[in-house]
Structures are given as C-alpha cells and as structure tokens.
Design a protein that fits this description.
The complex is a heterodimer of chains A (566) and B (110). Chain A is of the alpha/beta class and 566 residues long. In chain A, 40% of the residues lie in helices and 18% in strands. Chain A has 22 helices and 17 strands. In chain A, strands 15-16-14-13-12-11-10-17 form an eight-stranded mixed β-sheet, with helices on both faces. A five-stranded parallel β-sheet of chain A has the order 2-1-3-4-5, sandwiched between helices. In chain A, strands 8-7-6-9 form a four-stranded parallel β-sheet. In chain A, helix 1 packs across helix 9. The longest helix of chain A has 19 residues. With 110 residues, chain B is an all-alpha fold. Chain B has three helices and no strands. In chain B, helix 1 packs across helix 2 and helix 1 crosses helix 3. In chain B, 35% of the residues are buried. The chains are: A alpha/beta (566), B mainly alpha (110). At the A-B interface, helix 1 and helix 8 of A face helix 2 of B.
C-alpha cells in the first residue's frame, strides 16, 4: 500500500474492526490503518517516543468512551450528583491534549462521545441541565467541538450518526463483554466510510459537479409528451413532493459550492421552457452551470459539459432514473460516480442526502460563490464570440490581479486550491492547511496568493506562487493557477511577481522545475513558452537582466500587510 | 445428513445461509488472503482455522444476529465453552450449522 494514507487509531475500546474496514476498502483513498495500544490514549498521545508513532502517521483517529475519559460523567452514569462544570473542565483538559496532538500530526479526527441508547439515565429528567446524562453528554460534545474548532487540522466527527444508522443493534453488549467491542460492525463500517470521505475531501478530491437527467429525475413525467403544465412536481402529490425535495437538495448542494449540470435527451427549448415556467420549479436555468439537452449520447454530453466547465470526470456525479443510461455512463466514463437511484421515487431524495462525495474540509467564500462565477463565465464566453482576436478579448475583460501573502484568513482556500489544482500545478504538492502554514513560515520562503476579478465578476483566490531561497537562488516551489483563469495573462503576472521578488532581494537567479504528472501538461507547455531559459529535466531559469515577463492588460495590486513571513 | 435430528432440510439450509451471511460480514473485516471460503467444509477454529480471537468474537455476534433474523429465534452460542476448540461444535462451518440446528431443536422441544 505504497500510496496509502497511514492512519493511527487511538481508543479506549477495541477499535480493530474500524481499522479493518479502513484497511480493506479498495476504493480510494487507500488507508493503512494501525491500532495504538488499547486504553492508553492520553499517555500515547503525549509520548512521542512510543513505537506506534514510527513511521509517523498521516492521520490519527481518536475515539473514546465518555465514561472512561471523563470521570465526572462516569459518576453521573452511576446516578451520583455531578456539577456540569466539573465534567466540562475535564473536557477542556481532553481537548488540550488533542490540540497538542494536532500540532505534531498532519490530521486528527476526533469522534464525538456516544451513550448506550439503552441508558435511560434519569428518565424524564435526563434532558434537564445539571442532572441528566443525555443533557451532560450533549454539552460535553459541544464543548469539545468548540474547543477544537480553531485547529485547522482537527475534525470532529459525529459518532451518534453512525450509531443511528445501525439502528437498534448499534450498541453491541455481546461484543463488549466478549472482546471490548462496544459497537456493531455496521457502526464501524459507516465510520470508516465517513473517515475515508473526509480524507478524500481533504485531499481535494471531493466531487464538484452533479449532472442530472430531467424527465423522471428532476421532475415526474416526460416533458416532451405531457407538457410542462402536467409534470409531477410539488402539489398535493406524494411523488410531486419527492421531486420537489430532490430539487431542494440539489439547490442546497449548489449553495455549498457544488455545480449543477443538466444532461437530457430532449428538445432544449422544451426543457428550458419547463424550467422557466413551471410555478413550483425550484431549480431554474441560471442554477445550472451548463447543460446539454439534445438527442446525443449522454456519456458524450457529460464529458463535453465537464470539459466546458474545466473539470475532470473524477469531479462528476451523474444522477439518472434510467438504469440503462446509468450503465452506459458507468461503462463509458468510469471516473464518473453514478449512484443507483431506487425505482420508488419517494426514496430518491434520500440517496442524494446520503452521498459522501461532496465532503469538503472547509467552506470558503469561493465555494459559496462558485455557481455565480460559472454564470459570469458563460457571459464572458458570449462576449468572446463577438470580439475578434484573443488579445482584443483579453483587453475587454479589464482583468485585475491582487497579490497578498498567505494569512489565516485565506489559508483554507489556499490549501484547497493547492490540493485541488492539477492542470496548472508545477509541483502538485498536497498539503493540509497546517502543513502549508508551517512550510510557509520558514524564514527563507515566501508564499503569495493571487485573487483575480474582471468586469464580469470576481474569480476569488485563484493562484499561488511560492519561492524558497537557497544559496542566493530563488527556487519556485509552487506555481498553481485555477483553470478558470488560465490563458488570461494571470500566469504572466505570476512570473512577473517572482521576478520582481528576486530583483528586490538581489538574488542571482530564479529556478523552476515542472514535475510532470498525467494532468499538468498545460503547466509544462506554459513554462516552455514562458521565455525563460530551459535547462534539463523540465527546469527553467531566469536571471535578472533577462527580459522580464509582462502581463498584458492586467492591473496588478498587492496587499503586503498580510505577510506571514519576514 | 447431520446430527440435527428431525429438523427439516429446509430449516437447515436457512441456518447454513445465515452462517454464510455471517461469514460474509466477518470476511469484510479480513484481508483478502485470509478470508474464509463460503463453503460448508471451511475450518473456523483450531490450527488450520482462519480466525483469530477478534474474528471469532465477530463471528459469534454476526451468526447470532443472522440466525435470529432468518429464523426469528434467538440463539446463544457462547454457552458452549468449547465452541471453537479444535473438536468443538464451531470448528467448521458444517459443525457450526449443525450445532445451531441442535440448539434450535432443543429449544423447540422446550
């Protein structure tokens, strides 16, 4: 498992089943899960010399039982009188241990505490503050989440949801007495799925585009046959309500920053009329980043749409009621995720709700406005069609680039861009926010971010340039640009930035090396045409005195006050 | 057939299916090269058994659940102290199936 993420599981119960599910799942990301010594969470976390830290894990999962971690809670379960504040003080102590752990491992997942559902505590008083077991446990979990909220590499996962999903058998007394396994296998299986989804999202591989079919998926009925007036959508109709809920959930995804696309075998005008005129339609045409409504093969249309939106097929989810269409897309485009949809339309909205593929480690402002930015892009493309040369078109965009150092405010988005970008990414480094922060804080390194906007809209944070100074030479480490602005002279402004820095520091030269991947050919091509001298192994050199790069038609401003490095 | 007395062959087949379903569940937690064959002759315990102590606990829990789901009757496997001894009643898939059949037979006879 050379490329597997190494995970260390720390627990005060037998957590080997979770390790097994993480380890045995062949779907990416692969996980090499190791179990720490049983019941020694705090001591192992504090002991850096303990053998389980070698080799160092990529992530740690900490999952404990409340009654063994918080003594005040154990007393409460025994129906003894306990001050809630005493329990919360112990939670703070536990959180502090986790925060320290987070400072030396790249990624920590902390599972919330759960109680045995059969534990009735104080019965009808159990939700009463200061008395109840359930009330105290909720407060403990909230306190834990609050205390850990500031750590960019610690994620609190809701274990109660895993237990709820396993139903009445979630708590496993037999497993507990025989092997100190408190939960049913289903609980561990769901936990493993959530942890893997989180790893995928943190690695920048969350899905970004949902492509939906129209007839019997977005609404009930075939619009070309029955007309938009007779579609089953909303109204006093169980199926109509289910379709409405399905659309609402799609819109929620859009609000989270997931793009929506529409691919339907239909007449375009008929579908667009339905989107515009049906009074209960939740999703209207502008909610879709793009569509292909024609009689062509859906797989070809999906590939075409993804290319238009500059997304890889591994970013796409396809939802279609028809099993044959699903099978066709699975076969033709294996990277596309194609979940099965139940024949019972009333169950379809729940499928969408259960998908883990959109899990992202943070919600940045760029995520929340992504859909709008694609609408702006459609307007740019329309404008381009009316203007002669590409240079003329670029001039009309009135592009502005703002340079700022990485700071706490833009750290999440910077890490997200670094991890998600493939095509214009020189080194394709993958780092968590805390790793990136630590790297950039070294005195011989600088890391800038670039925001871009034009007269059609704001692209947000789209570029990263980082330089490491060694022996009076500036080495370009990261050269990352969102594909949304590729080819619009922002690349040139990034070269200009690096050159200006080297001149200001009186360095001998700049060196850059493209590390080829299967996806970053556009980056290599850009560097080959950059005007820099090309060396061996895709390396490029610029020396003060060489012609500086000019970004035509771009207004560049900077915000140096946010510097993290001196 | 087996030592499951006058239990119908249909009932025994359902027990076997439940045991095999439990094995499927346990196999999900095992590396591919250590999985138990879906076969009546497969050994579960003893020197040639595939499962460690954790695997045996998982198998007990899963089997009790699957049998209860399939036949609507709760069974208790942990009463047999020698369940997974080399010659115990759970040493192979076939023996475990027969053991469950005999437990059910006993409980039906009150």
């Amino acid at each position: 498992m050379a490329d597997a993420s190494r995970g260390l599981l720390l627990s005060d119960f037998n957590i080997a089943n979770l390790a097994a599910y993480l380890r045995n799942d062949p779907e990416p990301p692969l996980v090499s899960a190791h179990v720490g010594p049983f019941g020694q969470v705090a001591s192992v976390a504090a002991d850096r010399q303990h053998p389980c830290w070698q080799p160092p894990p990529d992530h740690v999962v900490v999952w404990t039982r409340p009654e063994t971690t918080i003594s005040a809670f154990a007393n409460l379960v025994r129906c003894e009188s306990v001050e809630t504040e005493a329990a919360l003080a112990e939670v703070d102590h536990y959180a502090e241990m986790l925060l320290q752990l987070g400072q030396r491992v790249p990624l920590v997942f902390v599972c919330t505490w759960s109680a045995d559902p059969a534990e009735r505590g104080f019965g009808m008083l159990d939700m009463q503050p200061g008395i109840g077991v359930a009330s105290t446990l909720m407060r403990m979990n909230l306190r834990l989440a609050d205390r850990l909220a500031g750590a960019p590499n610690i994620y609190v996962l809701d274990s109660q949801r895993w237990l709820a999903g396993a139903g009445a058998r979630a708590w496993n007394p037999k497993g507990w007495y025989l092997g100190k396994i408190p939960f049913d296998s289903q609980v561990f299986k769901t936990a493993a799925q959530d942890i893997k989804a989180a790893l995928l999202g943190i690695g920048g591989r969350a899905r970004k585009l949902v492509v939906v079919d129209a007839d019997d998926t977005l609404w009930g009925g075939v619009v070309g046959d029955v007309g938009w007036q007779n579609l089953r959508l909303g109204g006093h109709d169980a199926q109509g309500e289910a379709f409405l809920d399905f659309q609402r959930r799609l819109r929620s995804l859009r609000t989270r920053g997931v793009l929506l696309g529409l691919v339907s075998k239909n007449e375009e005008a008929v579908v667009l009329e339905a989107l515009e005129r049906h009074p209960e339609m939740v999703l209207r045409a502008p909610d879709f980043a793009g569509w292909r409504i024609n009689w062509s093969d859906k797989a070809a249309n999906i590939a075409d749409l993804a290319a238009e939106l500059k997304l890889g097929l591994d970013s796409v989810v396809f939802l279609d009621d028809h099993p044959v269409e699903r099978a066709r897309v699975r076969e033709a485009l294996p990277e596309v995720l194609v979940p099965d949809l139940p024949a019972d339309k009333l169950l379809v909205p729940d499928v969408l709700r259960g998908l883990r593929c959109f899990d992202a480690p943070a919600l940045t402002s760029e995520d929340l406005t992504r859909a709008e930015s694609y609408i702006s892009e459609r307007r740019r493309t329309a404008a381009r069609a009316t203007i002669g040369s590409v240079e003329d078109w670029l001039q009309t965009l009135e592009m502005k680039v703002q340079i700022e150092d990485m700071c706490e405010a833009n750290l999440e988005r910077t890490a997200q861009l670094l991890n998600k970008t493939n095509q214009m990414n020189m080194a394709t480094r993958r780092l968590t926010p805390s790793e990136l922060w630590s790297w950039a804080r070294s005195g011989n390194r600088r890391l800038w971010t670039l925001r871009a906007a034009d007269r059609f809209g704001d692209y947000g944070l789209v570029g990263i340039v980082s330089i490491e100074i060694r022996d009076q030479v500036g080495h370009v480490v990261d050269f990352v640009l969102s594909c949304r602005v590729m080819g619009r002279q922002v690349e040139q402004s990034m070269l200009h930035l690096a050159q200006t820095f080297v001149v200001s520091r009186d360095l001998q030269r700049l060196e850059a090396r493209v590390l080829p991947t299967t996806k970053n050919t556009p980056c290599l091509r850009f560097w080959q045409q950059s005007g820099w001298a090309q060396g061996e192994d895709q390396s490029f050199i610029w020396t003060p005195g060489d012609t500086p790069t000019v970004a035509h038609g771009i207004e560049i401003t900077s915000r140096p006050a946010l510097a993290v490095t001196s | 057939m087996s030592n499951s007395g006058d239990l119908t062959s249909h009932a025994r087949t359902r027990i076997l299916e439940a045991v095999l379903d439990a094995i499927d569940e346990v196999n999900d937690q095992l590396p591919v090269d250590q999985r138990i064959p879906r076969d009546e002759a497969a050994r579960l315990a003893g020197t040639d058994g595939q499962l460690d102590s954790l695997g045996l606990v998982n198998l007990i829990v899963a089997t009790e659940q699957k049998v209860a789901d399939a036949l609507g009757v709760p069974i208790v496997l942990t009463d047999a102290a020698d369940l997974f001894e080399p010659d115990g009643p759970g040493a192979s898939v076939r023996q475990l199936t027969d053991h469950i059949a005999s437990l059910l037979l006993r409980s039906s006879h009150g």
